[in-house]
Amino acid sequence: MIPAVFMALALATGSLQSYDCTLATPYSISEVEGRVGGNPISFSGSAGAGAWQFVLGYDGEYGEVIWPDSPMQLSGKGSLIQTGPQDFAFFLVSKGPCLFTEGHCGSLVQFSQKQDRSMDLLLSPIAIIEMENGERRPFNVYLTGKCSEKKAGQ
């Protein structure tokens, strides 16, 4: 956990806590006949396994994702919301077209720091699916990940 004194120092100096993050397989979550289930989402081409790695940083005021080759067009800085003692969230928006939408993109980024200073991560992107009949409707995409603290000078 980040001690309160360390967090206050980070805020005062504007220093950014940085983490290397890797996402697991994305899942679509749906409800069919009252039952909730998930299915893995697979991608071809440039959205392979190595594409799901990025840097996440935060300084107590802002959260930032540094992901130049993001298959989700997820990169930038957003206002940080503290949701628990070592738990935070922020929202990012970018121009489309995007992996899960045809227009602009947006994702909620949530993370929780563990005692060993690693983090659990959840991304919830805005997503639209086109049905066989041409209708479009929102759908849930669930991306979990793990982050490890970057060492000084990395």
Q: What is the overall number of helices?
A: 1
Structural class: mainly beta
pLDDT < 50 stretches: 1-13
The CATH architecture classification is Beta Barrel
Question: What's the domain count?
Answer: 1
How far the N terminus sits from the C terminus, by CA atoms, comes to 21 Å
Biggest sheet layout? 11 strands, antiparallel
Text of the CATH class: Mainly Beta
What proportion of the residues is helical, as a percent range?
Answer: under 10%
The chain-level mean pLDDT equals 84
Strand content: over 45%
Q: Would you give an account of this structure?
A:
The chain is mostly beta strands and 154 residues long. It has a single domain (4-149), classed as Porin (Beta Barrel). 6% of the residues lie in helices and 51% in strands. It contains one helix and 13 strands, in the order H-E-E-E-E-E-E-E-E-E-E-E-E-E. It has one helix at residues 4-13; strands at 17-23, 27-32, 35-40, 53-58, 62-66, 76-79, 81-84, 87-94, 105-113, 119-125, 128-130, 136-138, 140-149. The strands form two sheets. Strands 1, 2, 3, 4, 5, 6, 7, 8, 9, 10 and 13 form an eleven-stranded antiparallel β-sheet that branches. Strand 2 and strand 3 form a beta hairpin. The two termini are 21 Å apart.
